[in-house]
Amino acid sequence: MDLSNENVIHVKKDGIEYLQFRKLLEYKDIINHAYSLGTNMDFRTSRASSELSKEEYANSLNNYDKLCRTIGCDYRNLIKGIQRHTNNVKIVSEKINKDIPDFRCKEYEDIDGLITNKDNFILASTSADCISLLFFDPVKKVIANVHSGWKGTLQRISVKTVEKIVNEFTCNPEDIIVCICPSIRKCHFEVEENVKELFENEFQDLGEENLKEIIEKKTPSRKWLIDTVLINKIILEREGVKRENIIDSKICTMCNPGMLHSYRVERENYGLNTALIELKEKK
Fold first, then answer.
1. Comparing C-alpha atoms, which of 203, 195, 211, 184 is closest to residue 273?
2. How far apart are CA 128 and CA 157, in angstroms?
3. Exposed, middle or buried by CB within 10 Å (0-12, 13-18, 19+), for 128?
4. Residue 54: exposed, middle, or buried by beta-carbon count in 10 A (0-12, 13-18, 19+)?
5. pLDDT tens figures, 154-179
6. DSSP 8-state assignment for residue 51
7. I want to staple 272 with a disulfide (CB 3.0 to 4.6 A). Which of 85, 94, 101, 126 is the partner?
8. Domains and CATH numbers, the chain
C-alpha cells in the first residue's frame, strides 16, 4: 500500500517506511523530518502504568536508531517529552544526556510540546490516534513538535505553541508552517455525549456553522463524531497561521491499521508511531 497523496510522500528505504511532507521537503537542506509507518515498529519509551522491560526499551531505541539513520540523523540527539495529554510546551536549549537520547528525563515530565532553534536536536513525539503537529518557521529557523490528542486539542496546545514561538523567537505567525500528521479522523472518532459537550463548551467561539461541521450526531447510535483536525486548522488560522501553510496528511490511523498504530484498533496492546523533526547543522 502507498499512502502518498498531494501533501505527503510515502518513502520506502532500507526496509524502513515513513511519510514526509512535500512542503517540508522544499526545505530539505534546512530540516530533517519523518513520520513512521509500519505496525512492526514500536516507539514506546515509557508506560503510564508500569515501566517497560529492558527488552522493550532496547527495541524502541533500536527502532529510533534505524529510522534516524534512514533519514540521515543521529538518534543520540533525540529529545522527547513525557506526554501526559497536557498543554505544556517547553523550549529546548540544551541536551541533557551526552551520548543517549533524552528520553524519560524528569526535565520533560508532563511535556507535550517541544520547541527549539538549535541545530541537530531531533524533537520527537509519539501517538496512536492522537495528532502530532510539526511546526517550522523557515525565516527564523525554529521548529516544534507537538502531541495534541483530544484533551490537548481541548486545551488548544497548538495555539499555545504558536504563541510561545512568536513570543520567544519573535516569529511572524504568517511564516509558520504546520504539518498535521496521521491521526484518528472524524470518520472514526466516536465519543459519548459528555465528551461532545466538552467540545461544544470550549469551542463556542468558533461559531455555530463551524461547530456543525466539527460535531456530528452518529445515527442511530447515541455517539457523536468529532473532527479534531478541523478544530486545529481553524484555531491555528485564527492565531495568524496562513491557511495555505497548514498542511494536512489527510490520513486516518484507524482506516490504515496495517500501516499505522491505532489505540482504538489495537487496544491494550497498542504500539506507538513517532514523528521527528530536526534543524540541520548550519554550514
1. 184
2. 18
3. buried
4. exposed
5. 999 999 999 999 999 999 999 999 99
6. P
7. 126
8. 8-184+245-279 (3.60.140.10)
- In the chain, the amino acid numbered 166 is V
Burial (Cβ within 10 Å: 0-12, 13-18, ≥19) of residue 102: buried
Distance, in Å, from the CA atom of 176 to the CA atom of 109, rounded to the nearest integer, reads 27
| Cell numbers at 240, concatenated | 495568524
List, for the chain, all residue ranges whose pLDDT scores fall below the cut of 70. Answer: 48-50, 283
As a whole number of angstroms, the distance between CA 172 and CA 163 comes to 10
Torsion of CA 253, 255, 261, 267, to 10 degrees: 110
Which alpha helices (DSSP H) does the chain contain, by range?
22-25, 54-71, 150-154, 157-169, 193-202, 208-214, 228-238, 263-266
**Residue 139: CA count within 13 A, CB half-sphere:** 11
Q: Which three cell numbers stand for residue 56?
A: 522493550
Q: How crowded is the C-beta side of 132, counted as CA atoms within 13 Å?
A: 29
- Which three three-digit cell numbers place residue 272? 506507538
